[in-house]
């Protein structure tokens, strides 16, 4: 198996990316194609003793996408960038997956146009892994789509279900919809329509989730639009940094607190490992016709290594085949019941609703159904 890696992507590229790639191939034996300015990549690789004996090849790409560049300009003007060349390798079957810590918008745009979307998927979604009180949950979308239709949120739920089942090993994953209240009638028109679509799908839909429930671990999959998901992600990252700095100040206050830190240090390091994004390496872009991992812009060598290992896992477990199958099953099985249930959903109040006047009226607007 060969993984194409964007050597020029990220705040610490190419040094961190190349070191992470070397670590990955040593740890799991995966073949690596490093995409970028060949002279620069080879010069950096030469710092690693014995790299020529490793299954690493260099693929030249003459353009570099900067982190601040607009995706629309990149699509038109940098068709020979390390991102595009790497995705072309996946499209042509010369690589099994693509990993990049570069410009997220550019990766998203190039992946959508180069790999295309799986049948039945309208938009791809970035799926991030969140630590919870009960292990890990998947949240999607985390930033690929600022605005979403109800049918797209429904598709995110199906893709998240597939990921939780085949990657996290959940037998029957639970799926929740992030909203402003638990009641069926809460949320905007889009989330209310998505609620009914998920409720009538084959997934184990547990209803709406409030923000306070995200880290409780009651839902294996959390569905939201990319605007909400990205804000939640950035707030969570900032909160984790704040807690870490405050704990550091508390532990270093005096000799007694320092002693206390050394006593709990193993447990503290375990907790730090659980919330460290470098442990997962990157977030899969679900819905495109190929495995694509988007790593954090500030990725360390460890992050890159784990992103490559995650890409390898998604390929080995045939993630896209499962998503394709689950999407098609819901489209085929859901069409007739969907139309038959419109009248009931529109005119019949749910048994659990105490206030029928606030019941959400459902009108199918998406032509895909």
List unreliable stretches of 5+ residues: 333-369
The Cα radius of gyration reads 22 Å
What fraction of residues sit in β-strands?
15-25%
Write down the CATH topology of the largest domain. Answer: Isopropylmalate Dehydrogenase
Structure description:
The chain has 369 residues and is of the alpha/beta class. It has two domains: 1-116 and 288-316, Isopropylmalate Dehydrogenase; 121-241 and 319-347, 3-Layer(aba) Sandwich (Isopropylmalate Dehydrogenase), CATH 3.40.718.10. Helix content is 46%, strand content 15%. It has twelve helices and twelve strands. The two termini are 38 Å apart. 46% of the residues are buried. The model is unreliable at 333-369 (pLDDT under 50).
List keywords for this structure.
disordered C terminus, five-stranded mixed β-sheet, 369 residues, seven-stranded mixed β-sheet, Isopropylmalate Dehydrogenase, 12 helices
Strand-helix topology:
Layout: E1 2-6, H1 15-28, E2 31-36, H2 38-45, E3 56-60, H3 71-77, H4 82-91, E4 97-100, H5 104-115, E5 125-126, E6 128-132, E7 135-140, H6 150-166, E8 174-178, H7 189-199, E9 204-209, E10 221-223, H8 226-251, H9 255-275, E11 282-286, E12 291-295, H10 301-316, H11 319-340, H12 342-347
Parallel strand pairs: 1-2, 1-4, 2-3, 4-12, 7-10, 8-9, 8-10
Antiparallel strand pairs: 5-11, 6-7, 11-12
Helix pairs in contact: 1-10, 3-5, 4-5, 6-7, 6-11
